[in-house]
Amino acid sequence: MKDHLMADSKKKRGAADRALIALSESYEVAYWSKKFKVTPAKLKAAVKKVGHSAKKVEAHFKEQRHKAADRARIAISEPYEVRYWSKKFKVTPARLKTAVAAVGHSSKKVEAYFAAKKKTAKKKKAAKKTVRRKKS
């Protein structure tokens, strides 16, 4: 008898049965898709990637949402992020860290911070040139 091995056994309704996602049952696909707020196709792809455990699938979706939300966020604690954003803004890692400390982790705010700094630096340079010309 195969029923005791199947996640969707109608005879067994214990915790182990509820903790597994049976893709072969349309009502389960509908239930879990609604629960995780994803399409059935995304649910099936997640199960294929991490297994039938509902906890693992839920963790997978949480991680995906976290990554999507954090794309524009600069994580100073991650060396690869510091390298990426330093190169993107054409600044040293130290200047990037200073900017994040000043305006926060939003890449948009950091970009605006550097743009304002650049503008201020250009004004100072132009002022120095006019002062030198007057002295001559």
From TrEMBL:
It holds the Pfam family DUF3606. It comes from the Bacteria. InterPro entries: DUF3606. This is DUF3606 domain-containing protein. It comes from Bradyrhizobium elkanii.
